[in-house]
Amino acid sequence: MLESLSPLWGIVLGALPGAIGMAALTRHYGKRLAALREQQQAALHDRQRQCRALLDLLPQRLYRVDDKGRILFLNRPMLQDLGIQLADCLGKTASDLYPPELAEKYQADDQRVLAGETLTIIEENIAPASGQKRYVEVTKVPVRDAAGAVIGIQGIYWDITARIKAEQALLLSEMRYRLLSDLTSDYVYSCVCGPNQESSRLDWMSGAFERIAGYSIAEIQQRGCWLDIVHSEDRVRVDQHLSDLTPGQSQTCEFRLIRSDGEIRWIHDINRCEAHETLSGHYRLYGAAQDITERKQAEEKLRQAARVFEHTVEGVMITDASEQILAVNRAFTAITGYSEAEMLGHTPRQLSSGRQDALFYAAMWASIQTTGHWQGEVWNRRKDGEFYPQWLTVSAVENEQGVATHYVGVFSDISSIKQSQERLDFLAHHDPLTGLPNRLLFSARLEHSIQRLRRVRRTHHDQSLLAVLFIDLDHFKDVNDTLGHTAGDELLQWTAQQLMGLVRTEDTVARMGGDEFTLLIEAVAEPDNAATVARKLLELFEQPRQIDGHEFFITVSIGISLYPTDGIAPDLLIQHADAAMYQAKAQGRNNYQFYKPEMTARVIERLQLEMSLRRAVDNEELIVFYQPQVDIASGRLIGAEALVRWQHRQHGMMPPARFIPLAEETGFINTLDTWVMRAACRQARIWRDQGLALPRMSVNLSVKQIEQSDLASLVADLLNETGLEPASLELEITESLIMRQTTQAIRTMNGLRALGVRLAVDDFGTGYSSLSYLKQLPLHRIKIDQSFVRDITRDPNDDAIVRAIIALAHGLGLEVIAEGVETLEQAAFLQQQGCHEAQGYLYGRPMPAEEFIATYRYWLGRNPVAG
Hints:
This protein has 867 residues and is of the alpha+beta class. It has 30 helices and 31 strands. The strands form six sheets. Strands 23-24-26-27-28-29-30-31 form an eight-stranded mixed beta barrel, surrounded by six helices. A five-stranded antiparallel β-sheet has the order 2-1-5-4-3, sandwiched between helices.
């Protein structure tokens, strides 16, 4: 066995010295490798120290975190910002170093970088170590391993606080400059100008220009330059001004701009020309312009004031604070007779008349010193010694400290005005015909007498009365109608003289208007004293009166009221005396009546209204209005309805509903209707003579006129009197009136139709028609009442009634017209149903003749004019 092992052992034993050598070699080189490694490690540490030293020297803040946000590296500036050592922050996160709100923001940014995004942001934060606010620019990039996976974040940021603050300061400075430029009334601009004005363009302009010119700067830049809105009359001068500029030169110029709204503004421009930096043949124009419109206007006002001062008709004098006269105008010389040379250096006291005492002037100067103004009437003296009244206004002129430095007196000679005023005062309080006090003065004297008597009764227990007598001449209208107004005026003057001779000096006689007079009897012991005066008045008129060679009798009606039993106010006493006078007329005239308390206000009002209505024709208070009637399809004027209106002297325009029933009750309706018919026929003939043909004039008839057996004769006389063709007149009779007086109505209407007059039934459908009578009536037209027209488009019942009336009219061969048409829908419905004529507010309200002709002259001119 040994023999068999001996070769192996030989090998082993032979190799043993080599292995021992290899081990020694390994130990040898291991030591060298360790030494080399130590050298490399030392070199690496040295490079790391050098690299860190370099990074610590950088002003930028550097840091590195892993994918969990844990800090791996911070350079010295970063550590200084945090105020901690590197060892104290390695492994920590932003939450450990920053406030929660900043930490959350940083972590949110880090998540975007860990997702592969590179961020560069500018943000505001606070350095933890110093607490100072700063602005930083941060760049964060992802750190990847050899496989490209993001394993951390490398960050760098710069403190740009100084730059941001500089930019902010520059922005603030520019903003302040622009704001001041915009707030000032001036504007500044810069233009680039070429060889010709067309090549000029606006570089910049302050916002104040927009307020001055009304154009936006963008609009001006589109035009090229703001010089484009210079007034055409100034443009040549401005262009020449600019063409004369050379670099380094400054000039000023005044011209006008035309605002966007057309207003003209004056501009004072200061500009400087500088050579352009790069463009040959071009230059820059820098300018500052001021709106001097107010100054120009002030200058013009001064020029105007100077012209006014010299040419005004009022005298003007200017004094200094010590009242020494500094200047006077031409009118001053013309009024006073003193020249300017004679007055300079003197005081206004040289003009004093002596009529005003020291207290007057003390009060005047007290007002001037308190309010800076005084105005009033004074008497002064001309150079020739004549005294005259003047209206003087004195105003103080104050400096900036509120101290009066000058006084301006403006006066006018009111001598002629005073004379006219006295005349007007007399006319305002007296009747021009008789010279007696009028209503105004009578009321004033009555008020004064009441106050005086009230004091006497209170202090002396005196039971005296005052009496007011209201006197009206009976049938005075007959005098005017038969003998003329001259005779009537003579009668009124005679009456005034008789009344003045009857009363005492302390009593008052007045003419209230027309043929009405009043007496104020003072200190009446008992009512019978007033009755005695009334009886004397009645006796005055018992004898016949001779006027213009004619002898006639005239009587008076007298009403009496007493203070205080019948009233304590002047107007009430006059009113009650007036009411009593009407009662005297109602008792047969030529008598007197005391006011009775049982006369109610309603009765008095009715009585007054009745009397006023009876006098309305004589007093020319009645007016005829005309309402158009038209063809619905064409709008052509086919006629007009005459409607009476009453312009009451005291109550104004009174509606017909207030006085027509009263006229019917009192029997005055015949006179009223006849007057309306005559006025309407006369007006239609006047228009026809003017070439303006009205096809027909419609006039309403009352039941009283229908009852007249001679109505046809009356109408014939009116047609002959006015010259109007019978066919142009249409008389309207209400349905209820026809049915009430059917036999007489038919007879009267036949007589009217024989004349050729047209006849119509008014307000058809509102009465109780008898078809048997209706077919007998000689009618031409039926008028549908407005009560049915008003709701025809809404009420089926009115719809049916109107259809039936139209069908009935057509069946009887009659024309039909609808009244009260106010809407286009109503007109369309009526036309569709066969009613072709209408009147109502849709086509025109009742209006005076002048307004009617002005409105419808076109259609009147188109109608043919008959014979």
